[in-house]
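This is your field. Have a critical look at both lines of this record:
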Amino acid sequence: MDVTSKVKMAVSLATISRGAGAVNGTTVDAAGYDEILVLLDAGTNQATGTADVKIQHSVDDSTWNDLASAVFTQVTTVNDEGIFIGRLSRGLGNYAKRRYFRAVLTVATAACVTGVVFILMEKQPVQNTLETTPQWTV
C-alpha cells in the first residue's frame, strides 16, 4: 500500500516557545481525507504558564467557528512535556462539509512550548490500531 497517498501530515502550530497571548494556527485543508488525528505537542511550561488549545473549522477558509468538544485539557507545569491526542471523523453528519481546520492556542501568564500537528488519513476498512485513547473524538 502506498501510504504517502493515503496519509498527510500538516503543522498548524510549530512547536516553539510562545509568550502570553492567542495565536491562530495555519489552515489545514482536509479535502480528500476522512479521519484526522490532532496531536498537541506540549513542551515545557514556565512556572505559572498555561496553554489552552481548541480546534476550529471552516467551510470557506475565512469564517471560523469552534468545533464543539474539540478542546484539549489545559497544559500546565503538572502535565506538560507530553503528547495529547484528539480525533475527528469527517464522515459523520455535518463534519463532512467542513474542509478547513486549524488550531487556536492561548498562552497565559508565562511562556509555554506548544505545537499542533494534524495527521489526515483516508478512511480505510482496517481496525483502529491507535494504542492511546484520544482525549476527545468528534
